[in-house]
Amino acid sequence: MKIMIAKGYILVIALVLGLAACSDMYQHEKYIEDGERTYTGKADSVKVHSGENRVLIEGLLISDPKITGAKISWNAGRDSITVPIERTSGIDTLQIYIEDLEEKVYNFEIVTHDEQGNTSVPVNISGEVYGEKYQASLLNRPVKNKELYAGNLNTTVEFGSMDLSSGVFATQIRYTDSNGQMQTKIVPVDSSDVKLPNYKIGDEFEYRTMFLPEPTSIDTFYTEYEADIPQVTYLKNYSVPFEASSTSGRWGILADWTTNDAIRIHDDHGGWDEWNSNIFNVESGWGAPGITNGKIYQTVTLSPGTYTFKANLRNGNDTSNEGEGDYAYLVVAEGDILPDVDDGAIENDAATIGYSRILQSKDPEDFKVEFTINQQQEVSVGYATTQPGGNVSEQYPGTSNGRHCNIMSFEFFKHGE
Questions:
Q1: pTM greater than 0.85 (yes/no)
Q2: Where is each DUF5013 domain found (predicted)?
Q3: How confident is the model at residue 36 (pLDDT cuts 50, 70, 90)?
């Protein structure tokens, strides 16, 4: 009886197994009813690069040399393109541009195929297209300061900060140099300023800001060009506290000015004085030697126009007198040096454009030179002197025992600016 039960179980199990086998065969036949399906190799490492009303779809074709084309569809399959592919024996790169797209986010499907019509498993990827809306949101990088130094014709343009999430990465700036040539510079967004060398005085520069909506975008967006004109600076280091390029005790050499050897009578220094808040001072006497044809000046390039060069003196100066060998001048002259100061030289030198004698008896408001330039040219402006030293009162009775000229500041400007 136990055996029969065992046989009974065996028969039941066999019957169940038989039915399962028939079921599998049925399912298999169902799937191969139309023949076994063959798939082509799919595109690998697919990426979408955004652009202006277009995209670039890139990918790799690593396997299946039988691939002959690819179909890219979007808008739920309502739009598509098919491109031919010529495979090589190695790894090929797929690069497909899709143009004339509206500004929005797209879902793309990429399917490859062979000559027999076999297709790959679809590859889906999304990407964004940018256009007028994005363009309208872009702002030009603000200019904080723009200064043209007439001493070397360098213009320095300083920029404000930007919201980096906008995709900004640089500013393009263009200008005309003094030779009439157009120059262009690219200023990265992480740079706060740029120098424009050899700038043409009186001309505008133009600038626009550059954006990539995504780091891998294939198109750069630009703001419209804006025009601006730099503010011309004619002097550097022109007021208290004056800066010194080197010092020796109380005395120094003025930074950004040319100081000739005749001025340097204090341990090879002179013109800068730490007394009175680091002031401009040319001093002789009180035991120090005299100065002959001493000059302190800056050389600049000027455009046509009328200018004023003025010195603002501190009270209590012992400046020059009417006596021979006792001269001090504000001078404007052609070229890159001031004329000598020998008796009558300043007044009669052909290079002299204008001058003003500095005298103790003179109204301080008259320590200025007004002059007109008819063409762009290089000029030098500054202080020139021949003055006594040693015990000055012995040479010039009734005067102090030395000479000094404390200048608080200089002014140099073009009329009408």
A1: no
A2: 236-382
A3: low
